[in-house]
Amino acid sequence: MASGDDDDPIIQEIDVYLARSLVEKLYLFQYPVRPASMSYDNVTHLVARIKPKQQKVELEVAMDTMSPNYCRSKGEQIALNVDGTSSEDPSVYSTKMMDKQAFSSIQATTNTSRYAAAVFHKGELHLTPLQGILQMRPSFTYLDKADTKHREREAANEAGDSSQDEAEDDVKQVTVRFSRPESEQARQRRIQSYEFLQKKQAEEPWVHLHYHGVKDGRSEHERQYLYCQAMDTAENTELVKTPREYLSMLMPPLAEEKVTKPVGPSNVLSMAQLRTLPLGEQVKTLMKNVKVMPFANLMGLLASGTDSTAVLRCIQQVALLVQGNWVVKSDVLYPKNTCSSHSGVPAEVLCRGRDFVVTWSYFTKTHAILYIYIYIYIYICITHMYMCQDVKDFLEQMSVPRLNRGWEFLLPTDHDFVRKHPDVAQRQHMLWLGIQSKLEKVFNFSKDDFVPKKDAQMEPVHISGDQRVKSARENARENQSVMQRELDARRLKASRNMGSSGESAAPVQVKQEPVSDSEEPMDTSGPLTNGSINGYPNSTSPASDPHNGHAQAFTPELQDFVRSTFRKHYVLCLSEVKRLFNLHLASLPTGHSVYGHVTDRMLQDTILQSQCKQILVPFPPQSSAAADEQKVFGLWESGETFDKHRQVLFEIFMKNYRVRRNVIQTRLTQELGDAVTKTDVDRLLKECCMSLGGMWYLKGTVPS
């Protein structure tokens, strides 16, 4: 039946039969303290008895007192100690010598459903399930009896000495006590006690048996029952099973092992137990315990072969991306309807405070976090002065204290993850913008609060301890007064509804300017120019002078910024370009003013001169998008063959602000032929579009 190149050919087929005549009577005896070469088959068995319910067996076998290995004096001494000299009590050893040995059984296993005795006869295998497996070990109850005899003799001697001085008819006072009703708890303790179990076992009577040797005729007769009596397959249906059912019968699940597993603390989960959970629960549990983790470390803790795409989907539900690392969400650490263990503050307040700390870490794009700055904001805006320990917990979860630096983010920026997953980074960035907007409304903040302040470079100086304490007190007092004045000014500004003008107090900001040539440009010597912020006097540079013409309105540095930005994002609205430019300015070192004074008109002209075109997206009349959000620009030519795909896509969105995927794929096939693949369409949508409700929008045009 097997092929010539089979590594495991079938040699022989054997019929298997199940014998059931001795199912409830067959026991396997083991003698673990006796060598297999020295069996008890030829030894005279004197007594045999059994307790069937407990599966407890006792045997008494004769000892060869005439053997040269037998110590006669020791045998006589043991018999004397056990039976004593009195002839009234029944003796254990009738020959006044230890001439027999007792064996008592213990169960080797409580579950014998996987064990059977097998007999192979004439090409047939007959199996009989075992009722029990018993290990027969020597019993030393005779030593207990000798010890009892010795104690009785000593007690009798002491009682005889004391009774000579006491009268036998002394009157003794008797106290009668009535037992209380037994409670259920006391009853359970009594039932589980060792004394009660011993008593229950002693209540089962012994069943005396007759022993027959291996070569006895009765043994040979009983041995025939090990063969299956009904050889007809129709009657022997136990073995007519599928392979899976047969294996399940041979190796059933070990239910008792689940009960005997040690129970660990409720807040401790082993890696083996963790990997039995669904993937989402694994990621959530790890992030709740670690708080901050790079994605590569998370993949290392999960089982090998786990799909990274599935892990990315799961982690975005329980964590946020900060500097390329994942930080657990506040609502995961502080679930709804819970409160702080330190201050009793509700979870909603804790989440707001922690969100501010995490948001600060994200938008500053630096490692330094000033503790006093964060604490004052949380203290003033949340008005919970007793949250000091909670704020410390926020910081310790994601940062470490540094001398003269405050607190620094716990991990270095993971640039590799951001480079490999730009779509995830972009999605997380949009989420952070929403969180920032929510904090602005709740705390009456502005975007300036998340822009890093100018860091003064710390220089090592050697001063005395008293001078350090005095200086620290003065700095703290001055910082607190400055912060209070800034907060009062912001509140006064918000109360006067000054935020609608579109101007911001951020030190680096693209100035608003009319786009039409007929309108006069805004004053370039105002206090918000980039030159004045970076340490230079306010002045109008020749490159930014509107009277010099638009040909010189933008610098090569600005062109480089625009080109690199659009080669990375492909599609941007004007407001998003301005935001990215402000972040770029904020990251420049102090005193860097190569850009000069940049206006909206200059920024748009630079975009159009950098192989980009404005996409005239037909927004609906009821759209709430601002004017800068409706000015959408796309990279038209980058020097690669994929430019044709983007150009076709942009032409589609010039007719409708949202389309379906099949429309895009059909149009690409019509314009570029059948060479357009699904991979090309996926890449195009990933680079330039976002999906919402089954429709596709250009990036930056998705309705809020």
Give the strand line-up of the largest sheet.
Answer: 2-8-5-4-3-9
Structural class: alpha+beta
Mean pLDDT: 75
Continuous helix count: 26
Biased composition (Basic and acidic residues): 465-477
InterPro entries: RNA_pol_III_Rpc5, RPC5_C
Biased composition (Polar residues): 526-543
Region (Disordered): 148-185, 460-552
Explain this structure to me?
The chain has 26 helices and 20 strands. It has three domains: 15-63 and 99-153 and 189-226, no CATH class; 279-454, no CATH class; 506-698, no CATH class. Helix 9 crosses helix 11, helix 13 packs across helix 17 and helix 24 (643-653) packs across helix 25. The chain is elongated, with a radius of gyration of 45 Å. The longest helix has 31 residues, at 465-495. The protein starts with 14 loop residues before the first strand and ends in a 6-residue tail after the last strand. With 704 residues, it is an alpha+beta fold. The protein has a six-stranded mixed sheet with strand order 2-8-5-4-3-9, with no helix packed on it. Strands 1-7-6 form a three-stranded mixed sheet, with no helix packed on it.
